[in-house]
Task: inverse folding
């Protein structure tokens, strides 16, 4: 496993949708670690740069937990800002394409909660949005 530190720009440049698609229902191992590691941080960087509030991502995570990914996709705007909503919709569509049922819904909710926590941590530590 590569442990070389990555910059925010490198993490933001990751294909988060692909990480969701291949890591969400993967067994514990490199794919899952990539999604919940670099993928979650990259998603947090992107959402933070768009000014997304951590509580909005946390609310979306709870919506996914309660109603599933398919339900979250019916929301007209899953996050308050259009750019952030479009971004997260792409990730949700990747999760929905797996047809992984409740297990995939729960994993998606956990991943979104991790992303929300990372956005909050970035803000608390005063990391730049740019």
Result:
């Amino acid at each position: 496993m590569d442990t070389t530190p990555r910059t925010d720009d490198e993490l933001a440049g990751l294909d988060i949708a692909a990480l969701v698609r291949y890591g969400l229902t993967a067994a514990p191992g490199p794919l899952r670690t990539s999604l919940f590691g670099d993928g979650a941080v990259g998603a947090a960087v992107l959402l933070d740069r768009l000014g997304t509030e951590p509580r909005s991502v946390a609310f979306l995570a709870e919506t996914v937990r309660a109603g599933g990914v398919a339900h979250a996709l019916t929301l007209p705007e899953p996050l308050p800002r259009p750019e952030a909503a479009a971004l997260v919709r792409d990730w949700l569509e990747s999760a929905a394409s797996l047809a992984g049922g409740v297990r995939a819904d729960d994993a998606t909710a956990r991943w979104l909660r991790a992303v929300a926590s990372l956005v909050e941590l970035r803000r608390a530590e005063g990391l730049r949005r740019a």
Remarks:
- Residues 101-124 form the longest helix (24 residues).
